[in-house]
Amino acid sequence: PILYSYFRSSCSWRVRIALALKGIAYDVVPVNLLKDGGQQFSAEFKAANPMQQVPVLKIDGITLSQSLAIIHYLEDTRPNPWLLPQDPKKRAQVRMIADHIAAGIQPIQNLSILNKIGEKKMEWAQNCIASGFQALEQILQHTAGRYCVGDEVSMADLCLVPQVANAERYKVDMGPYPTITRINKALLELEAFKVSHPSRQPDTPAELRA
């Protein structure tokens, strides 16, 4: 498998965690979203993903984009360990939390949006994340065990940790979100979350390396 990834991309990080949890070896092709005006806009990369976004995973003879679609495919083809619970209610909760982050928070504070906001991009990102986290904190108070849904790592957790990293990068006050903070801390102790961390990627700049 080949993963087109950017070290700091939260969507790429979700997929890196899934690959690590499932023990899938892969090669990385770095796509620098800032260099050369954005390498995602190159003709070569557009051929891999017309949306010109990372991540892209080439696996089993197909090319997949969109992080959750990639993770669903890995779940369907390599279900051990599972990232979606067998219980339909818990499975729905996992999908709800994953979508809350992947559709409701991350897209409105990602690089392409912030570039259009201009001078107030820090304030914009903080407001988007805080608004989403206020809702997410309430949801997790009903679903969480050790992790987002119960005591097993799920797709929801793969979305949570990169989004908290974004929040910290944009200096969001995490004080009002004790459940999110507790779960994030527990997840960052797991090996799959450590090896996939932005500070430990092939394209991580020297000054940001762990």
Automatic annotation (TrEMBL):
Signal peptide positions are none
State the GO CC annotations. mitochondrion
Substrates-to-products reaction catalysed: 4-maleylacetoacetate = 4-fumarylacetoacetate; RX + glutathione = an S-substituted glutathione + a halide anion + H(+)
Ranges of residues in domain GST N-terminal: 1-82
Coiled-coil annotated spans = none
- UniProt keyword annotations, A-Z: Cytoplasm, Isomerase, Phenylalanine catabolism, Transferase, Tyrosine catabolism
Required cofactor names: glutathione
Q: Which InterPro entries match?
A: Glutathione-S-Trfase_C-like, Glutathione-S-Trfase_C_sf, Glutathione_S-Trfase, Glutathione_S-Trfase_N, GST_C, GST_Zeta, GST_Zeta_C, GST_Zeta_N
Q: Which molecular-function annotations from GO does this UniProt entry contain? A: glutathione transferase activity; maleylacetoacetate isomerase activity
Please state the pathway this protein functions in, per its UniProt record.
Answer: Amino-acid degradation; L-phenylalanine degradation; acetoacetate and fumarate from L-phenylalanine: step 5/6
EC numbers listed for it are 2.5.1.18, 5.2.1.2
Extract the Pfam families matched here.
Answer: GST_C_3, GST_N_2
Which residue range or ranges hold the GST C-terminal domain?
A: 87-206
The compartments listed are:
Cytoplasm
Q: Is Plastid given among the entry's keywords?
A: no
**What biological-process terms (Gene Ontology) are attached?**
glutathione metabolic process; L-phenylalanine catabolic process; L-tyrosine catabolic process
Query: CDD domains, alphabetically?
Result: GST_C_Zeta, GST_N_Zeta
Family designation: Belongs to the GST superfamily. Zeta family.
| Name the record gives this protein | Maleylacetoacetate isomerase
Q: Which organism is it from?
A: Caloenas nicobarica
